[in-house]
Write a structure and sequence with these properties.
Layout (H helix, E strand, L loop, with lengths): L1 E6 L2 E3 L5 E9 L3 E10 L5 E7 L5 E3 L7 E6 L4 E6 L8 E10 L4 E5 L3 E5 L2
Parallel strand pairs: 2-11
Antiparallel strand pairs: 1-3, 3-8, 4-5, 4-9, 5-6, 7-8, 9-10, 9-11
């Protein structure tokens, strides 16, 4: 089994920064893409950013320039650096990883970490 554990959420004032982390553990053979999604109150879950093991990345257009995704392959960990945060960034942020184990390849999700941007 594979587990994803997010951390780093919290409350921050508008204009502030936060860095989220998501560590994968378990019977991992290989991790392909790792990504972040978020769900704001009353809204659908939306894509935030994705990064491949090669380091290539992609972002939601609306977040380019403020958010940066990175990963440490040796630690099976993905990060999301969030700058110039706005109240509309308030959401639960979820980590997703495309993981192969000895027996299968599938997506895994973390439990989510809350980010609140408010003055």
């Amino acid at each position: 089994q594979v587990q994803l554990v997010e951390s780093g959420g919290g409350s921050v004032q508008p204009g502030g920064s936060l860095t989220l982390s998501c560590a994968a553990s378990g019977n991992i053979f290989r991790i392909y893409a790792m990504s972040w999604y978020r769900r704001a109150p009353g809204k659908q879950r939306e894509f935030v950013a994705l990064i491949y093991s090669s380091g290539n990345s992609d972002y939601a257009d609306s977040l380019k320039g403020r958010f940066t995704i990175s990963r440490d392959n040796a630690k099976n960990t993905v990060y999301l650096q969030m700058n110039s945060l706005k109240p509309e960034d308030t959401a639960v942020y979820y980590c997703n990883a495309d993981v192969s184990t000895a027996t299968m390849r599938r997506d895994y999700w973390g439990q989510g970490t809350q980010v609140i941007v408010s003055s």
